Amino acid sequence: MNDVNNCENGFEAVFRNSKDGLAIFKDEVFIDCNASMLTLVGVDNRDDFIGKTPFDFSPARQHDGTLSVTKGLALVARCHQEGSVRFEWIIKRFNGDALWVEIILTKMTMDGEEVIYASWRDISESKAIELALKEQKNTFETLFNESQDGLSLLIDHKFIDCNKALLDMFGYSSKEEILGLTPMDLSPEYQADGRRSVDVVADNAKQVAGYGNKMLEWQHQRADGSLFWTEIIVIEIKLNGGPAIYAITRDISEKKALQEKIISRNEALKETNRSLSETIESLKLAQSKLVESEKMASLGSLVAGVAHEINTPVGIGLTGITQLMEECRDIQTRYEQGNLTENDFEDYLNSASELAGMIKKNIDRTAQLVRSFKQVAVDQTSEEDREVNLNQYLDEIFYSLSSVLRKAKVVVATECRNDINVVTNPGLLSQVVTNLIMNSVNHGFKDRDSGNIYIGISEHENNMFMMQYRDDGRGINKENLSRIFDPFFTTNRSHGGTGLGLNITYNIITNALGGSITCNSEENKGVEFIIKFKVKARLD
After folding, report:
1. In a domain, 141, yes or no
2. What are phi and psi of 531, to 5 degrees?
3. How many other CB atoms are found less than 10 A from the CB of residue 336?
4. Is 303 helix (H, G, I), strand (E, B) or coil?
5. Which candidate among 12, 102, 129, 265 keeps its CA 20 to 30 Å from the CA of 246?
């Protein structure tokens, strides 16, 4: 009897002092509880707990959506049948807060009546962690399954899971077709660079083991045998305590096709550029030859003009000499026959003096023409600098062009100081002035009876001079004005124009003479060129 009393006293002590919430209910009504139970449900007085049912401390529905009353009664009935049952439950504290508890219901007999002994333990913290982990797991599974990239898990180089995107990428309809396969089963024997796929995988596996991850481009093989390019990110992870591989696979076939297209186009562009460079070099060579031809043509025109100009004084001189020789023979015959009178001799002396004067004058003119032609011709074919007086050199140029100017009835007026002595390449200046004058004669004064040209040269700054060239010819229309310095541009091609005269002039001034040239003109209002050019030195 004492043992029974001691046992009951021991049970009472454990019941009252347990940290778990303990209670006894009969016919689903609480008849006893300990202090921990009151704390757990947030009740201060025992009387507020006794007489209540477990459902008074439960929300209307449990976590799975089942009514608390329905689910609770089923668990109590199971306890009566099995003797004990353990489960997790959401309770509602007195203040309305929800709390996760683990409940153990045990059937027992007390005072000859069957009752339920209930143990409630607060598991809210561990349950929160569990739910958070479950939420993370659900989130990961959602991301894994719904990702547009192909995702897979591998253990011992074999697929143990994959998502739908990977199945679609490789042309499979179910996971069972892929699970258990290795990456080699989804790859051709050789990669695009000629290496065996198995050797490349072995090399990459070492890198993954060393660094924990690896990104690479890989050529895969679909279920139908077709090849396609992928970008793979391989990550080493822990799964269920062991090593595993998490792989992200992305189809980059379009990207690779675009890259190959770009490479192909770049090669084609390089070839086009090489061909274009060769064409440009050929054009430069052709242009150089044309420029040289233009110079020779200009020189040829100069030669023709000078030859025509020389014909007149040479012809007059030849006539004078012929007449002088005849008079000499006549006076000699009279002398030998003894018929020479004093008047005859005086007439001879006067005639001989006039003829000699006329011959000398024409020979001097011929010599001047030859000297001018020689100097201008040498300058136009020479690249050497020499000392010149700008005013005098302009006169030499005009003298060499006198036949052309006279034939076109062109009057040239100049304005240049007599003391401007410089060191420069006079042939370049001669080419510029000649081209401008011939341009005026051939274009500006075409179909006109006469014309006027003005050329003025003045000092500008620091060995820089300015030349102003004007004519009163036909001028240039607005559409053509911006193109006059372009190579091969001419409005006179049908009459032999090459379109290189002003282009050569532009290049000489801007490149060789380090200056600039601009043109102002309106149709039927003549033309004006403003030219700035440098000389090597200005001499005092």
Report:
1. no
2. -120, 130
3. 9
4. helix
5. 129
The reply to whether 170 and 60 lie within a common domain is no
Would you say 422 and 390 are in contact if contact means Cβ atoms under 8 Å apart? yes
Rg of the chain, C-alpha, whole Å: 58
Q: Are residues 222 and 101 in the same domain?
A: no
CATH (domain of 504): 3.30.565.10
Q: What is the largest CA-CA distance in the chain?
A: 207
Amino acid symbol at 455: I
Contact 295, 380 (CB under 8 A): yes
AA letter at 364: D
Closest CA to 54 of 79, 29, 35: 29
List the chain residues with pLDDT less than 50: 1, 4, 375-381
Q: How far apart are CA 62 and CA 58, in angstroms?
A: 8
Give the tens place of pLDDT for each residue, 419-457: 999 999 888 888 899 889 988 988 889 888 899 999 999
Task: Based on the fold, state whether residues 395 and 361 are members of the same structural domain.
Answer: no
| pLDDT in the model for residue 386 | 87
Domain span holding position 359: 257-379
User: What whole-number distance in Å separates Cα of residue 49 and Cα of residue 36?
Assistant: 12
167 alpha-carbon distance from chain centroid: 39
Measured from the Cβ of residue 435, the count of other Cβ atoms closer than 10 Å reads 21
Whole-Å CA distances, 45 to 16, 34, 36, 295, 445: 15, 11, 12, 124, 128
DSSP string, 147-160: -SSEEEEEETTEEE
pLDDT at 379: 47
pLDDT tens for 224-238 read 999 999 999 988 888
For residue 511, what is the DSSP state?
I
- Residue 383: its pLDDT value, please? 59
* Among candidate residues 385, 465, 452, the one with its CA nearest the CA of residue 417: 465
Nearest alpha carbon to residue 430 among 471, 478, 378: 378
Asked whether residue 419 falls in the same domain as residue 499, the answer is yes
Task: Look up residue 314 and give its two tokens.
Answer: 């040479």
The closest alpha carbon to 90, from 70, 120, 51, belongs to 120
The enclosing domain of 93 has a CATH number of 3.30.450.20
φ, ψ at 112 (rounded to 5°): 80, 5
**SS3 call for 307:** helix
Report the Cα–Cα distance between both ends of the chain, in Å, rounded: 149
What does each C-alpha distance from 360 to 250, 319, 504 come to in angstroms?
101, 12, 40
Q: Torsions phi, psi of 497, nearest 5?
A: -70, 135
H or E element that contains 227: strand 227-239
pLDDT value of residue 498: 60
Pair 402, 459 in one domain: yes
Q: Give the Cα separation of 455 and 432 in Å (integer).
A: 12
- Comparing CA positions, the residue from 169, 292, 161 lying closest to residue 231 is 169
